[in-house]
Amino acid sequence: MAKENQLLEEITGSEYKYGFSSDIETETAPKGLNEDTVRFISAKKNEPEWMLASRLKAFRYWLTLEEPRHWAHIQYPVIDFQDIIYYAAPKRPKELKSLDEVDPELLRTFEKLGISLEEQKRLSGVQSTIAIDAVIDSVSVKTTFKETLAEKGIIFCSFSEAVQEHPELVKQYMGSVVPYTDNYYAALNAAVFSDGSFCYIPKGVRCPMELSTYFRINTSGTGQFERTLIIADEGAYVSYLEGCTAPMRDENQLHAAVVEIIAHKNGEVKYSTVQNWYPGDKQGKGGIYNFVTKRGICLGDNSKISWTQVETGSAITWKYPSVILKGNNSVGEFYSVAVTNNYQQADTGTKMTHLGKNTRSTIVSKGISAGFSNNSYRGLVRIAKGATGARNHSQCDSLLMGDKCGAHTFPYIEIKDKSAIVEHEATTSKIGEDQIFYCNQRGIPTEKAVALIVNGYCKEVLNQLPMEFAVEAQKLLTVSLEGSVG
Amino acid sequence: MSTIAEKINTGEKLLPSLEKEQDLLSGSEAIRVIRRKGVDSFSKQGLPARKSEEYKYSPVSLLFKPELALRAPIQSPVLKTRDIDSYRIPQLDAYQITLVNGFFSPELSALQLEDGMISVSSLSTIPAPLVPLFTKHFGNYASIHADPFTALNTAVFADVLFISIPEKKLLDKPIQILNIIHADSPVLISPRILIHVGKGASVQIIENYIYTGKSSQVVSNALTEIVVEEGSRALFYKIQDHCTDLNLISTTQVLQKTGSHFDTHTVTLSGKWIRNNLNIVPDGEHCETHLNGLFILNGAQHTDNHTLVDHRKPNCESNQLYRGILDDKSTGVFNGKIYVRPDAQKTNAYQSSKNMLLSDEASMNTKPQLEIYADDVKCSHGSSTGQIDEDALFYLRARGLSIDSARALLMLAFARDVVNTIRIDALRTEVERLIEKRLTK
Question: Which domain-ending residue is among B232, B257, B284?
Fold first, then answer.
C-alpha cells in the first residue's frame, strides 16, 4: 500500500504536458461585453448586416437570462463576463498562399502539439488522410485540402468564410438545431462567436477523408466561442474530428462553443472529439471552463449521427452532445470516455430524443475519476408518443481511483410509447485488486497494469474513434492516468 | 376551518391558516415548538414549484385547491368495527392498530397486549417511562428542510401514533396498521407515526392505506419515522389498496443503527395521485437494507416512488427492486438515489427498476441516480422499460392459452419478482390475489 501511495504521489505530480504559451501577436477586442463588443466582432469579421442583427438579437436575449448555476453537479466561482476578452485574432497577412507564409512560431506550436501542418502537406502529395482547419484563438488560420474537397462539391471552411461565401446555407441552418434561445451559453455564443468550422457535404457524396479541426486557446483571458455547423445532405457521409489542447494558464478561461449537426435522409455524420484543455494544476487552480452545447438532428429517414468523445482536460466540463431522432429509422450514438483528476469536474452525458418511428440509440459512457475530482454522467432518453418501435440501450460505468473522488450518475428516462424498449445499466467500482495482482504476478508493474486495465475498460469507446485519433486518444488517456494510480 | 389560499407556492398566503391552526391543535409545549419550526420551514419553502427537480414528474399544483381545508374534523364517529373489518387481511393473525384521519383509535384497534410486549400510544397517552424515548427520536430524522411536505406535516400534524418495541423483543406476530382516511370534503390530513425498534428486537409491520371518503380532492400527507436500533430487525410493508380517489404523499424516514436489518415493500394498486418518499439512512456499519416496490396502475393513476439510501458508514449493503405495470393513461415515476459518503467504504448498493407499458397513453419516467464519493464500493443500477415479450406470448399461445390469460400469466410472473420477497405468508397470498384480480380483470 505504501508503495502504491508513493507511486500515486509521484505520478499525480505529472504536469500538464502541453503547457506552453506561444508568442503570436494577437489583435484583441477590449475586455468586457456590451453591444459595442458584439458590433466590434461583427465589424472585424466584415460581416453582412443580417449576421450582425442575429448577433444583437441573441445578445439582447442573453441579457434577460440568468446564469445557470444550480442544477449541474459542479462548483465554480462566479464568472465575471465583463472580465473576458471576447475576440482575439492572430495578426496575419490577408491570405496565405503556402505554409511558408505562416508565422514560424505558429508552426512550432503545431509541432509541439504533434500535428505539424508540414507533415500533413508533405503527406498529402502521397496519400491524403486528414484535412485540417486549424483554429487558434478563435480564428481559422489555415484550411488545407480545400481544393481536393471542392472538387467533390464539399464545402469545408471557417465559419466566417461561410458567412461571406455561402450566406444562404448559413442562414438556413444556423440556429436550426441550437437556437439562441436554447440556453444561457448558447445565447452568449450566438452573440459573440468568433469563428469555427463550417462543413457541407452535398447530396450523395461520401467525404473521402476525415475532416479535422484543431482548437487551441492561446491568449490569456480570452474566451473562446467557436461555432461549428455540419450539414450532411441526402445520402452524404462525413467523419469529423475535433481535437483540443491548450497551453498552461493561471486564470480560468471560458469556453462556450456551439456545434450543430444536420443529417438529411440517408445522411451520416460521425463526430469525434478529443479534448485535452488545461485542467488546472494540482491544487485546482486555473484551467478551462468548458461549457459546450452540441446537438445534432437526424432530419431525414435512415440518417445517423454518432458522437464520440474522449474528455481528459478542462477544469470543468459541462456538455451533453445530443441527438434528435426525427427521421424514421434514424440512429443516434454516443460514446464517451471522461477522465477527471486532481480537482477537475465533469458533468457530461447525452440526450437522445426519439421522435421518429423505429429510431435507435446507443449510449456508452465510461467515467474515470481520480484525485479529488468529481465525474458525473447526466443523460436523458426521451421516447415521445408516436415513436413506435424506438429502442435504446444505455450503459454508464464509473471507475474510481482513490477515496477522495466522486462518481455520479443522473440518468433521466422518459417513456411515452408502449412499444419502446429502453434499457439502462450503470455500475460503479474501483479497479479490482485481483486484476492488478494478476498483472503484477506476470511481471507488469502496477502503473502499467492500471493503464492496461483502463484501456481495456475504455476499449468500447476508443474503438469508435478513427484510426488517426485513436492513437492520440490512447496517449492522452495514459498521460491523464499517470496521475491516478490508486 | 382554514383553507389553503390559491397562491400556495409563495407559502405566504398559507401562513395565516397555518398560524391559526397552531392554537387549535393540542400538545405539550415541546410539540408546539416542533410544529412552529415546521410552520417556519414550510413558509420559507412553499410547495414544490413546477421546476423543482424533486417534483419534476409529479407536479403538485393540482392537488392543492383553494377549497382544501388544512385539517379534518376530529375523529369521525361514523366508523364501526364492522365497517373496517373488510379491510383486514384474511388469515392474518396480527396486532391490529387503527388510525382514523391520523388519530389513533383504541376502540377500533385489537391489541390485547401483555406486559412488556410493545407500547402503542397516541400523543396524549404516551406512558411516562417512554416519554424521554419519544422526545429523543420524534422529529429528529425526517428533515423539515429537505422536503416541503415533511415541513407541512410537521406544521399541522394533530396526533402521533407511537409504537415502541422494547429491547430484545422478538414479536410473535405482525403489527397491522390500518391508516384510514375518511372525509367527504376536500381536506388535508397529516397522519404521523413514530416507530422505535429497540436493540436486538424483531418486528414485522404492515401498514394499509385505506380511503373511505367520496371526495377526490382529499390529500393525505403522511409521515412515518422508523428507528431501527443496533442489531434489530424490522420488516415494513406498505400496502396501498382501497385508495381510489385519494391523493397521497407518504414519506417514510428510516434510521438504521449498527448491524440492523430493514426490509420494506411498497405495493401500490390503487390511488389517484401517490407519491412515496422512502428515505433510508444506514448510519452504522454492517447494516442490511432491502427496498422492494410494485405498482400496477390503470385509469389516470399517478404513482411516484422516490427512494434514497444514504450510506454513511462502511460495510453496508442495500438492494432495491422495483417493478411497475402501467395501463391506460397512467403515469409512473421511479427515482432511486444511492448516496455513498466518503467514508462508506465497502458499500454494496444495487438497484433494479423494470417497467412494463401496456398502453400508448401510459408513460413512465425513470431516474436511477448514483452519487458516490468512496472508491472501494460496488454499486450498480439497471433500469428497463418495455412491453410484454412477443416470443414468450407466442410460446404460451402455442400451448393453448388465450391471449388474455397468456398476458396475465406473463405479467403475474413479472410482478412476482417483488411479491415473492414478501415474508408474511398471509400477506403474500392476499397481495397475489389482489394482483391476479387486477391483471385478469
Answer: B284
